[in-house]
Structure formats: structure tokens, C-alpha cells
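Practice problem 4.
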């Protein structure tokens, strides 16, 4: 079985840089949850069958991993949007955002998947 590969987008890189400076605790929390998710799928569990309180189905195969369970104190709602391409075994990191950008991030993620699939 081929190992999963992680592929960050440009939008993710920009968002990561922003969160690193402005909201580092939230970034650490979503990345910790990403690490948990990645370990599970790396052990052979189909990405769409991974269930946890921090995982949200956003349609078109996109999953949003939030900040729940991470850090100390109250963290702002933050989500890391990912798309697991099961056929290619690539886990795309699409973007990171908060509640205010959630609608735009879901659209960006859906558009990313549509473009990726060439549909």
C-alpha cells in the first residue's frame, strides 16, 4: 500500500503564515488534530470514515479539522480545510480560517476539489 503524501496549497501557506503570527495557539491546536487525522488514515482507515468531534464534513469530500481539544484556555473557532484524494493518496491542505471566513473557505475548498477533478 502506498503511503499518503501531504500537499499544501498556496492558500494554505498564506493562512499558515498569518496564523503563525496572529493566532499561534489556534494553529497548534488544528495542526495537532491534523496530525491525529493523518495518523489514522496512514494506518489504512478510509479518510471519510474517520469520525471525531473535531472533524466536520463540508461536502465534496472536504473535511474541516477544528481546534477542539487543543491548547489551554479558550481558543477561537478555527478550521483547517483538507481534501483527501483517496485514489492518488494525497492529502491536500487547502486553507485555514475562522468562523468569519467559514463560508468563503468552504466555497474555496469546493472549487479546489472541482478544479482538481477536472469537472
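Answer key:
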Amino acid at each position: 500500500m502506498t503511503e499518503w503524501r501531504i500537499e499544501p496549497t498556496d492558500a494554505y501557506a498564506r493562512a499558515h503564515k498569518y496564523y503563525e503570527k496572529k493566532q499561534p495557539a489556534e494553529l497548534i491546536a488544528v495542526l495537532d488534530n491534523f496530525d491525529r487525522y493523518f495518523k489514522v488514515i496512514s494506518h489504512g482507515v478510509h479518510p471519510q470514515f474517520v469520525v471525531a468531534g473535531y472533524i466536520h464534513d463540508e461536502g465534496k469530500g472536504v473535511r474541516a479539522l477544528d481546534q477542539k481539544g487543543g491548547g489551554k484556555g479558550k481558543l477561537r473557532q478555527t478550521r483547517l480545510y483538507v481534501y483527501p484524494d483517496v485514489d492518488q493518496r494525497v492529502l491536500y491542505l487547502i486553507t485555514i480560517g475562522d468562523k468569519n471566513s467559514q463560508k468563503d473557505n468552504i466555497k474555496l475548498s469546493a472549487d479546489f476539489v472541482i478544479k482538481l477533478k477536472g469537472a
